[in-house]
Design brief:
The chain is of the alpha/beta class. The protein is 39% helix and 27% strand. The strands form 3 sheets. It has a 6-stranded mixed beta sheet, with helices on both faces. Strands 11-12-10-13 form a 4-stranded antiparallel beta sheet, covered by helices on one side. α3 crosses α4, α4 packs across α5 and α9 crosses α10. The structure holds adenosine-5'-triphosphate. The site of adenosine-5'-triphosphate (ATP) has 12 residues, from β2 and α1.
């Protein structure tokens, strides 16, 4: 469980995180989505005790990281896949990590197996591909078999195999009942891995909801119908409560389905020459929302309003 409450972090004149409040619960993959510079890494660093909040708090299982009695057993993180010493073997790197955090030595072989690096355990990390380094970083996060996992942009720069592997891994970890918090700047990626999304822009909260709710709220679809009798059909559709605009050779209908438009045409005795559903992408809605994230938040009462959520 992660708890972020009224978190603000300033670096000199830069406000990286601005009054952020949200919770991340176990048993699900929670996506932490926002454009570059939105404050995702900063929030994760504060959660992991690597940075101090300017105000507010960020807790792991109800405590500040520094107050956790055995942090490696409670929380693991992938922040920078390339952080291992290039001259060390994967095995030596993980053994050093295990020693530093009091994790039993046998876990090294187990996590190497788990991330698929057992066969290259003796090779120097300097010769590893980005995907292998990312796996090694994840192995480090899993060493203490923690119930909470934070992954910062884990699929960045990976090839398709690596991406698929990370997607499966985060799902498995969540299915095991762990708290899994994964950041990304890509809505398309989050759509495939997350159950819930915490969306940030400019250091502020834009949305915090199940993915399905955001899809329903943000995906705007419209039906385009071609008909030689647009006037009659438009009247029928308006009576049914749909929004209708005239378009070249037909109508654009909002707030309904293609089936409903077809049925309405049938009831009105209108000939239909073409009928198609056009869906605005979720990605587009996300870009618009985060592009104006600050104004959106301010419009709902700003920081105070968010903290009450
Ligand atoms: N140590 C630092 N010193 C000064 N400014 C910083 C520092 N760390 C982050 N920032 C600034 O804080 C803001 C948020 O950065 P952060 O890295 O948290 O965003 P992010 O959402 O993780 O984006 P990215 O995916 O690009 O890392 C940015 O404007 C960044 O330049």
């Amino acid at each position: 469980m992660l708890t972020v409450r009224g978190l603000t972090k300033r670096y000199g004149g830069v406000t990286a995180v601005d009054g952020l409040t949200f919770e991340v619960r176990p048993g699900a993959v929670t996506g932490f989505l926002g454009p570059n510079g939105a404050g995702k890494s900063t929030t994760m660093r504060v959660l992991l005790g690597l940075d101090r909040p300017t105000s507010g708090e960020a807790l792991v299982n109800g405590r500040r990281y520094g107050d956790l009695p055995r942090p490696a057993w409670e929380v693991g993180a992938l922040l920078d896949g390339g952080a291992a010493h290039p001259g060390r073997s994967a095995w030596a790197h993980l053994l050093a990590l295990a020693r530093g955090s009091g994790v039993p030595r046998r876990r090294v072989a187990e996590v190497l197996e788990e991330v698929g690096l057992a066969g290259v355990a003796g090779r120097r990390v300097g010769g590893f591909s980005l995907g292998m380094r990312q796996r090694l970083g994840i192995a480090g996060a899993l060493l203490g078999d923690p119930g909470v996992l934070l992954f910062d942009e884990p699929v960045n720069g990976l090839d398709m195999d690596g991406v698929l592997w990370v997607r499966r891994l985060v799902r498995t970890l969540a299915d095991e009942g762990r708290t899994v918090f994964v950041s990304s700047h890509l809505m398309s990626e989050m759509q495939l891995v997350a159950d819930r999304l915490v969306v940030v822009a400019g250091g502020r909260l834009v949305a915090d909801a199940p993915l399905s709710e955001l899809v329903a709220a943000w995906t705007r679809s419209r039906v385009v119908v071609r008909t030689p009798d647009p006037g009659v059909l438009a009247e029928r559709l308006r009576r049914d409560g749909a929004g209708v605009e005239a378009a070249d050779g037909g109508l654009v209908v909002h707030g309904t389905t293609a089936e409903a438009v077809g049925d309405a045409a049938h009831r009105a005795g209108v000939r239909v020459h073409g009928l198609r559903l056009e869906e605005a992408s979720l990605e587009q809605a996300y870009l618009e929302l985060t592009g104006t994230g600050v104004e959106y938040a301010a419009g709902r009462g700003g920081r105070d309003g968010q903290e009450e959520k």
